[in-house]
Amino acid sequence: MVLPDTTEDTQGSGLASVNPDLASERLTASFCVPRLTAVLDGGAERTRLRRAVEDVIESDPVFSRENQYFQSQNERYEAAVRKAVHVRKKMQEMGWSEDGPESVYVYRALSGDVAFLLHRVFMRSISVLGSDKQVAKWIPLASEYQLIGSYAQTELGHGTYLQGLETTAVFDISTQEFILNTPTISAMKWWPGDMGRSATHTVVFAQLYIHGKCYGVHPFIVQIRSCQDHSLCPGVIAGDIGPKMNFEHIDNGYLMLKNVRIPRENMLNKFCEVQPDGTYIRRGSQKINYFTMTSVRISLISDEVILPLMKACTIAIRYSVVRRQSKLKPGEEEAKILDYQTQQEKLLPQLAAAYAFHFINNYLHELFNRGYREIQGRNFDSLPELHAFSSGFKAMVTQYCTSGLEICLRACGGHGYSLLSGLPSLYTKILASCIYEGENTILLLQTARFLIKCFTAASAGQPVPPSVTYLAAVKPGKCPAKDKLDFLSPDIYTEAYQHAAIRLISSTAAKLQDLIQSGVERHEAWNQCTVQLVQAAKAHCHYITVKNFVETVEKLENTAGIQNIMKHLCDLFALHGIFSNAGIFLHDGYITGAQMDMVTASYLDLLGIIRKDAVPLVDAFDFTDKNLNSALGSYDGQVYQRLYEWARKAPTNKQISPAYEKYLKPLLHNKLSKL
Amino acid sequence: MVLPDTTEDTQGSGLASVNPDLASERLTASFCVPRLTAVLDGGAERTRLRRAVEDVIESDPVFSRENQYFQSQNERYEAAVRKAVHVRKKMQEMGWSEDGPESVYVYRALSGDVAFLLHRVFMRSISVLGSDKQVAKWIPLASEYQLIGSYAQTELGHGTYLQGLETTAVFDISTQEFILNTPTISAMKWWPGDMGRSATHTVVFAQLYIHGKCYGVHPFIVQIRSCQDHSLCPGVIAGDIGPKMNFEHIDNGYLMLKNVRIPRENMLNKFCEVQPDGTYIRRGSQKINYFTMTSVRISLISDEVILPLMKACTIAIRYSVVRRQSKLKPGEEEAKILDYQTQQEKLLPQLAAAYAFHFINNYLHELFNRGYREIQGRNFDSLPELHAFSSGFKAMVTQYCTSGLEICLRACGGHGYSLLSGLPSLYTKILASCIYEGENTILLLQTARFLIKCFTAASAGQPVPPSVTYLAAVKPGKCPAKDKLDFLSPDIYTEAYQHAAIRLISSTAAKLQDLIQSGVERHEAWNQCTVQLVQAAKAHCHYITVKNFVETVEKLENTAGIQNIMKHLCDLFALHGIFSNAGIFLHDGYITGAQMDMVTASYLDLLGIIRKDAVPLVDAFDFTDKNLNSALGSYDGQVYQRLYEWARKAPTNKQISPAYEKYLKPLLHNKLSKL
Description:
The structure is a homodimer.
Chain A: H1 20-23, H2 33-41, H3 44-58, H4 73-94, H5 101-110, H6 117-129, H7 132-143, E1 149-152, E2 168-172, E3 177-181, E4 189-190, E5 201-210, E6 213-223, E7 236-240, E8 253-257, E9 260-263, E10 272-274, E11 280-282, H8 289-322, H9 341-376, H10 383-411, H11 413-417, H12 423-433, H13 440-459, H14 490-517, H15 522-555, H16 562-580, H17 582-586, H18 593-619, H19 625-628, H20 639-648, H21 651-654, H22 658-668
Parallel strand pairs in A: 1-5, 2-5
Antiparallel strand pairs in A: 2-3, 3-9, 4-8, 5-6, 7-8, 10-11
Helix pairs in contact in A: 2-3, 3-5, 6-7, 6-8, 8-9, 8-10, 8-12, 8-18, 9-10, 9-15, 9-16, 9-18, 10-12, 10-13, 10-15, 13-14, 13-15, 14-15, 14-16, 15-16, 16-18
């Protein structure tokens, strides 16, 4: 075999300008991209602040995520701790406070790749559940990092069902202490972040016993490691729970307590207290214990769920105009894959959903802030609605975004499957959001319970909270649409969603009633309806999201085409939902088969319309390349060169594998080779 | 703080007997488990053989997967190579041939965690595409591992669209060689397994040029590394493509060729040849190049797609009877989570699907074997049907099983998210099956093209292949079911599926026709119909799968309740599909809303019935604990103890993190600590 003598690599040297296929997409935007960015950020001033913060973070090499896809769990943990310590220093230097507006952007720029997030939950739970005295003692210590906190609620045997927690805290009147114990293996705390290797303290949720009587689950501050030498405190067994699908940088931990004594003052006692003589005093709803969870649940939706979907859309859509594959028309050059209807149908509904969820999230935050102010004033009235609302939305948004992210990943084919695309780690991380802070099915059933109650109340003419007044307006009727354009009317589709939600809630309420009247016990009847109750809760959340999107679009000023393109996205989000859940709308004939064909036609038309603005619509999310950390999704679209350059840096190319000397060589030389 | 002096860990020491909650599930099986296992294996003799092979593999420590979840990509690769070399030795020792029945079970027992699988594809492609002379030369070399082969088809810029491959092979008449080149960065071979670090040879697919004329894509055998010292051959640049979502044990590689010359004899030439004077001779359909892909596509469905779903069902269902959470009835003990209707609705349809796909896979193999014999006799008539059939089924089964596996993972909550559950790696691996060996959407569109052709032919009274004769029987009609029990009649639901498939195919054919008649160009009209064409192809595949399940159940002897429970699973599979895709059946009123309520009622009833046999139904899959490699899914159900024991072995608990000395200590000691 004659071979040439030049084997050096001359390719992939330096990434040049923007890929022309991507550049051309930006010339035809129907709206002003920076203006839309400002709408998303909540004003141009905010955009400037966010970018300034991103600049500071991204220009500091300590925060680099360049090697993220190549690191082991141990390396990821070390990097996350290093970043957590450094970010504190950085914020002090910059004069940014933890509560300030910059803080949000700092964590956005870090992309969650940092330790001590549970330290913040530790502080938040003390702020919410602690007395003024406790807040005065612990918050400064925590703020100054004289301790590292965690939040130990979940146990090996119990997650969302808090009442079932098995850890015990027995009040010892003689020493004025609580004695904490892990009575069984399933009672071991399991999963708390920052606890496996870092935390010195943690809030432990345990069943409170006084004089042998159980008072239910309460929060206690427990020291688990020495602040001097970090050794485990006596009676404490703790460690890391090992490898997970993602979150390698977090030391999710286990914790066993054996007769660990803490002073009486360490029970968080804003809402209930054990007095020195063992008298138990309650100062408010026990439901307040759920409040930290509700608050965490709401706070994570933006950073952990919606932003990842926005990133995935950015990566997949940019890639889909750079990637050319096969021919749409014989004789022409290969087509951009985003010009295939099937690719549009995968990606554009996810893009519309990202916008829809961004807007509903704003609404949820307003609602939460109002509720929080009320609770501070010891008014717990809004807690049930807030809990039902946040539960359902957390479930819907996490489920939808997780599916959406998987679709984006798969839509990028083999390259999406490479860690270097950024999509696998976004996916494996967002998947966890369906599980943590309340398993989605259980959350949806909590929403459903609220809806059934409100439906019953509304049917009896009693007042119900504002978000569910529509349940009083049960009317049969038919969808009045006459042609496909009618389905671009928000009234038409919003009513269809409302009708479907009412139908599912009322028919499930009726089934439940029938079962109970036929002699089935209430709890068993409930169980037999749960599949349908989940459907009903989803339909309710979907309806509220569509309605909120419509209202948001109405409020947007019609500048530079923004209202126009948002209207298209809103239509797409709504019609995609009808198209994908056709059975719900066809079931009672509210929408007929012929009308469903109109929905389909309008839906497919919208894909073609939004296709034209797809790249500007993801550009408006305004992610930096460093934030995306994707070989496929960068602003310049130099996809293949970047994949190749990044791959060459992989540890698999740095090491001559011992496998050759040990196994391959003896194998290949097992006979006198003929080759 | 007074603390006790006993801190040693006395828990989790040794796993004892079967968890009683799991044991009780096995006492009430309505059928004989070993008999069902034999049905799945294809006879009790087969079961014995499989178990004997599993014993041999699992008792050899080289094949242990104990540390799998803790290893880096480099470690996984080394282990996989070691296993590949060792398995060859083992099989020789045992007298098992690569073509023998034991071989299938060897690879099942190894769970794919082994290198050189592409070596087998290399051999297969030579066997199928090579002349007798080429087979005689290369197969013995490959069998004796005097070379390590790979299969280099996919490029950085091209996957499923083979015609677009850019690698060139120019015939040099003067030297009687082909000169292979990678003309652009996107032409780089990218993804081939075993190529990044191991292979010495590979089959390269390249555009053949003779005298400046392109003859399309052809396969060439190219040496890429020395068999003596494993150095890259001159003109060859190759390496590993870096981290992926899974397949860390495989060295998926990249390959660039610069004027690499190979002798004329290295083009695989059973079906076409370049003669010494440059004359090009074709001896059969060019489609034969797709045949290796079709063959690989079919061969992987069982091991890479159906078995993983069966494993996931085993893990999730066993866990769901051990896990107790919350109360079904106040005052009672906490309920097994499988007793919640929502949990049943997640898992049991996946179980039914695993059985459905096992049976359709048997059918597909029969069809393939018949086609293969015909092709060996140079009869290519059955190729289009086989291609359409295998494409659609690959897409449907991979999509369905991937979703099913994700559902199983999420149904296990936080513990499912731990790598130690085994579910994340099953999921991240099966996800790849939606992409490799043909992207699913493209495959479904190939099936759709075949269906539209056959529909047109059938409408014109022309003969069509057996699997699509039903397309000739278009009749409007309505579903005759009168109550929920009618929906347990296979005739009723099979006809509903058939009706839905015909409706979707015929309505899309009509839309296509309308568009073309209205002046839209044919290719553009096709693109505008693709979302619906994909739906139609899925409906066809779903129908055939239901029909095959029904026929399989009919053939099962009614011993020890097996036919009975299989009938329930078949009903569940069918009704789950109608329930989940209600819109398709409601659209033209074939099934009314009232009938859909009957479907729902029967479907939910079936969940309760199959619930009773859920554990025996997964026990029948007969996976060993080592094969499952799951802390949640073992036969004894000692879930919590195993999670804890495995977690303690994690590298994160072996190492005192440098993070403490470097970052935590300075942080905590930044002021005079008050703690």
